[in-house]
Amino acid sequence: MATQNLTEYGFYNYTRMEDSYREERGNIPFGQGFNVQGSIGYLFNRNFGLELGASYLLGSTSEIDFNYLASSTNPNSSEVNYELSAQMYRINPSLVLKAKFRTISPYAKMGLIAGIGEVNFRRESKSVFSHYRSNFQVFGGISWGLSASMGANYAINRDLDLYAELNIISMSYAPSKGLVTEYMINGENRLHSLTTEDKEVEFVEENTVDYNSPDSPDEPSSEVKHSLPFSSIGLNIGLSYKF
Fold it and tell me: What are phi and psi of 212, to 5 degrees?
């Protein structure tokens, strides 16, 4: 949910042909993937309680392709492939409203959610003359958002319930740091050839560039922060133990 078009970073599908080219937007849903979670809660009475949850999101991979087809002016074709994926650890304090009807207990949860994560931008370029592969990882900073769930518990026995819930998360993530973790050219590791400025980035709220005083190659470069979409809607199924 809440995908984003990262066209400003060149993440859109592109095909160049003989006399034309085609562009196609690519939706990047970083919040999409497999989520594992657990929580502990306390009911003050039959209808009201608090809960603290923790979860791990293993994001799915999004792909973007640039294809340069052979033409009369350039007989050699080439392609560039991007793979974008993310993972995030999150905690989620929530208010719980619950009702009880024999073996079925419907409930609703509303709360805050905070997470720390990382996003990987993998790039691979292939042509007749070269093969280039790199990975740029962004991380650092805390992501904040809101969450809401509606579901129901089914009593298996006195202590154990089966539950299913629809969960909605609204959040974005603005990383504070970036790092090149892989840099291969024609099968050779060239990561050591990059300067600190080439390998590391610090994302800031405001960035000023002075052409008369260039940055040192031994220090990380600076770029303005950007927000990435981590919103999602999903179905959670699991077991609840009462004690």
Answer: -85, -10
- The most distant pair of C-alpha atoms in the chain lies apart, rounded to whole Å, by 77
Q: Is 87 exposed, middle or buried (0-12, 13-18, 19+ CB in 10 A)?
A: middle
Q: pTM value?
A: 0.83
Nearest-angstrom CA–CA distance, 223 and 234: 33
Q: Domain map of the chain by residue range?
A: 4-241
Walk along the chain (243 residues) in steps of 10 and give the mean pLDDT of each run: 60 77 78 92 93 94 83 79 92 95 92 95 86 93 94 92 95 93 92 93 87 85 88 93 88
Task: Tell me the two tokens of residue 144.
Answer: 């904040």
Q: Which two tokens stand for residue 134?
A: 């790199």
**Regarding beta strands 48-59 and 4-5, do their DSSP bridges make them parallel or antiparallel, or are they unpaired?**
unpaired
